[in-house]
Amino acid sequence: MKTKLLSLCLSALICNMLPAVSYATSESAVLDTASSVAPNIIAPNLSQSALQALQWQPVNTHATQTIDLNGTSQKLNSGDIRGAIAAFALPANQGSLEITLNSLIKDKQVYAPNVLVLDEQLRPAAFYPSHYFRYQQPGIMSIDRLEGVLKLTPALGQQKIYLLIYTTHTDLQTSTEMVDPAKAYAQGIGNAVPNIPDPIARHTEAGTLTLKVKSERDAGNILIGQVFSTPSQQPVTVGSTQATSTSPIKTAPVAIPQSTLSTEKPVLNDTEKYFNDAIKKAINNGDIDKALKLLNEAERLGSPTARKTFIKMIKNKE
Question: Which domain of life is it from (predicted)?
């Protein structure tokens, strides 16, 4: 049985030696640095001093938080940003995160959120423009809302990453088209849909948000933070670069190809030890699939010892 296990593991190891390829769907977004796009399509250029001055509210995983943005909320006077903002600190040492952000529509008014994701050093890493958050009809336990899901993978060695949520002057000039309840009801029971106008929700500087954060076993789409010290880069923009004046457009998050991370430098000692220890623990627990994933990630980062550790641990199981 142990010999069979070794054969299976070494076969899987050979497969993992093949270069990884990431694919994006036709709806995936790319980083757009063109100056011709609308102002809220480009991530804001915020100073470190302005970011450090904010009060970052901690958020725990597996919890839904409701945030009322009003006249007493924090503000950030910079560029096109207007009105109340929300600033959150998320745990970065619990694996990948799936974050569901809702902006609730009340009295035909809604806060159109933009989200800037920052790493532990408050460096921008990903940007979700307001039109990424799409209108959702009410359900049994929910009301009309704008909704978007963020899938993030914090780089190793970080304790926290940050979410800055804000709206802009450009957003305040637009609105969101809702669905009339009579139309939704007719569609639901299969009747003819009445020819009546849909209500319009005006975008405002205040509103109500809900934030749900949960840990994900699978890797997220956007890597937050730098494994090595690299030159400053623009944050990855997630979402279409075409703004709309009514209902926001939903686009799939972009997957960062693994080849974009440098493997020319040797992996840091602490990081190498982390991977080797994690590989040993996974094999001791019988989780070979996890050990293979850790090996693949470690070698992608330049580890010279992860493969030796993996093979040695497998042989010790004989």
Answer: Bacteria
* Tokens read off for 248: 């926001």
**CA nearest neighbour of 241 among 100, 104, 128, 125:** 128
Percent of the chain with pLDDT over 90: 40
What H or E segment, with its residue span, contains residue 3?
helix 2-16
Q: Which residue has the tokens 């199981």?
A: 317
Distance between CA atoms of residues 194 and 187, nearest Å: 10
Structure tokens at 240: 């279409």
pTM for the whole thing?
A: 0.64
Q: 296: Cβ–Cβ under 8 A, 6 or more apart, which residues? A: 16, 20
Which amino acid does the sequence have at 114?
N
Q: How many helices (H) and strands (E) does the chain have?
A: 7, 15
Dihedral pair phi/psi, residue 195, rounded to 5°: -85, 75
